[in-house]
Amino acid sequence: MLEQQKNNYSLKNNIIEIIKITFSWILGYASIWLAKWIIVDIVFQKGMIKIALQQIFERSVKYKVSYKETLLRNTQVINRELTEIIIIISILTLLYRIYLKDYNKLTILNTIPYILIIMIPLGWFYIVRAHSFMHAFFTYRNMIIPVMNIPIIILTLFSKDKTKENNS
User: Fold this and answer.
1) Can you give the residue range of the structural domain that contains 80?
2) Do 58 and 88 fall into the same domain?
């Protein structure tokens, strides 16, 4: 994404690229699981597809867990203090920039792709709440995406507008 910004890709192109990559990932991920179930069903003839669909139903409908509980459980596994510090610094930085009116529309717009990237794992946690809650010991790794994008957003907000510098 940073390379794309150097090459003057537009915000619209960046967002379209993120959407394409996200849907490609979803398709690939779903295909891997479906293929696994089909292969196991063929080899062992245990009705794996039926079992898998029942498990999906039970974990998404019967097993009730809130989105907040899922996020808390996954953040408890990572270094929570560091995550909180990064988030607080980000919010304070943003508020300070707004207070000083030290921003421009382009700088804020350049953060939108990173915000979309942050939303991907958070959306995943929302969609598969029960799975992410039960398996937090490995799904917590998805939290690295929002945590690492926050400093990138800060750097983007503090970056100078290259068009202004070239025109001076």
Assistant:
1) 64-168
2) no
